[in-house]
Amino acid sequence: MKQIWMILLCLCLLFGCGRTKQPSEQPVTLTLGAFTVPKEVYQKQIIPAFCAHWKQKTGRDVRFEQSYEASGTQSRAIQSGFEADIAALSLEKDIDAIEKAGLITHDWKNNPGEGFVTRSIVVIAYRPGNPKNIKGLEDLAREDIDVIYPSPKTSGGAMWVVNTLYGAGLKIAELKTGHKNSALAKKFLKSVQKRVKVMDKSGRMSVTTFENGIGDALLTYENEALLRQKQGYLFPFMVPEASILIENPVAVIDKNVEKHGNRKAAEAFVDFLYTKESQMAFAEYGFRPIDDTLALKLKETFPRPEILFDIHYLGGWDNIQKILYSNEGIWNEIINELANEN
Amino acid sequence: MKSSTNWPMKTECLRKNVFCLRGLAVGYIGFLILLPIAALGASAFHSGPGAIWRETTLLRSMASLKLTFILALMTVILNIFTGTATAWVLVRYEFPCKKFINGLIDLPFAIPTVVTGIMLVVLYGPNSMIGAVLGRFGLEIIFNQPGIVLALLFVTFPFVIRAVQPVLIEMEKDLEEAAMTLGASPFQIFFKVVLPTLLPAILTGAALSFSRALGEFGSVVIVAGNIPFKTLTAPVYIYGEIESGNLTGATSVSLVLLTLSFSILVLIHFIQRWSRCHETD
Q1: Is the pLDDT of residue A20 over 80?
Q2: How far separated are the first and last CA of chain A, in Å rounded?
């Protein structure tokens, strides 16, 4: 009985102390709206590190509210009123859409990474031991191979995959004929799309499907594959002969930080993402660093594909949207043609 | 109407209350159901009937609608037989754990459909024991059309059973016995006595499962494989169009699904009316 009283007394003291110790100022709250892929690195490394950094610098606490959704979904949520202070998304076009909605008023590309904070490439994951002897992208068109990637209709990640296939087709055409032949590129994309067995709604689900035993090859982000390996799974993958350089943007959303009065903290957070500490954390979770000197240092982990092209090689996002993904675009043409062939 | 002369105030009050209640109910239904549907219709027609027609008649939208329709129909036909048989067994026979099994029937409503999808992949996926054995015979369930039907069967399982069960319970056995004493064969008893009584309930259950199957998304998106023209159903197609920013495409196909479901509900209404007419015969 005496012990219980003692415990109660201790508890009272504890809570009493807690109450008397009033913070000098209200903590700042930042809302992060991000795509799902970097969730682990934000939650486990970058956000705790930034909280400590901000506390040390200003003496104030910072609290985070975090939301992780598919890039397109997140972008639409922010456009229709989700008051995120910072958007960290997969595709440049998703930030562009927020900008077009009038929520971002500053030049978000005016920073060391030109608006981008992480990089990656598209890689080919295969079965342990490579039983089907897959050597590169061109093997994915083989009759005996089943391919998995998510639907570009629902997944930003899949857009990068389809962009890579189309771009690789253009590069192959360039090597063979001397110019970017879009008919040849389309043919290449179609020959791989023909082998696609399952199109999940997100990149993560495609990884799960592949691990459930479907397909011989999976096209995914390099960082997803590296994360899988980090988590201890047997997840062999190769850097293909050609890939697109994936660049993930981040931006402070002006209208929301003005409303919340936390612009300083939000901007400091974005700046913090470019520090060596954060870039190393990203690298640890499989993202290629933006910083060139760091990239050079980590070139063992992140080998450069023979051919590396970026979105500008395909004419930028606006052009890609039009020629590949619109109703009359190449991707829909391919889908229709494949349906008629069957 | 003697009471109204005695207590006119009270009746007036009561009438007012009933009126109020009716207004509330109608208002609630309007707010909860009609308003969102009207919003969908408005947003679809915002882009003009031409755009709706174009988006709906796209080869891939038509293909997804056709696939959804056929698979939902297959599901319903299977449900009619298995559901009626299950209800029959549950009402007419005694066996151990009957109450427990009766409780299991509603479980599909309690399980999130995404979980249903995952369960089916775990059970029938190519990596599972069943999936591996079937795969050896060249049978593919998950990531193919049988998988979609399986998911639809699971989520629509309770409808027919729960529609038929109460009718069966109320149906007196003496009707059948009378038919038997009059010399009817079991075959005749079933088709001339039992089936006509059950038919409206079976059709109601079938229509409900059909509507549900048309709209099912959560489980289908996981088990289907989602290849356009092959395993991409209309709800998953709609989701894809929303995600890729084609709101007109999404709302157009939604409108078709909505119209289909609505027609089916109207059908239920007529079935019920028809069955009521039969009762009074």
Answers
A1: no
A2: 80
- CA distance readout (Å), B15 to A298, B3, B7, B26: 81, 13, 12, 16
Model pLDDT, residue B2: 46
- Phi then psi for residue B7, to 5 deg, are -125, 75
Q: Write down the pLDDT at residue B6.
A: 56
Distances in whole angstroms, Cα of residue A115 to Cα of each of A93, A95, B36: 12, 10, 39
> To the nearest whole angstrom, how far is the Cα of A153 from the nearest Cα of chain B?
5
CB under 8 Å, gap of 24 or more: what pairs does A58-63 form? A59/A24, A60/A25, A60/A27, A60/A28, A61/A23, A61/A27, A61/A28, A62/A27, A62/A28, A62/A29, A62/A30, A62/A265, A63/A27, A63/A28, A63/A29, A63/A30
Condensed to tens digits (0 to 9), the pLDDT of residues B65-89 reads 999 999 999 999 999 999 999 999 9
Q: How far is B12 from chain A (nearest CA, A)?
A: 48
Using one digit for the tens of pLDDT, what is the confidence trace for B46-58? 888 888 898 899 8
ipTM over 0.85: no
Strands A86-88 and A217-221: unpaired
Does A153 sit within 8 Å of B244, measured CB to CB?
Answer: yes
With an 8 Å Cβ cutoff, are B240 and A335 in contact? no
Query: Across the strands, what pairs with A116?
Result: A249
What is the average pLDDT score of chain A?
Answer: 89
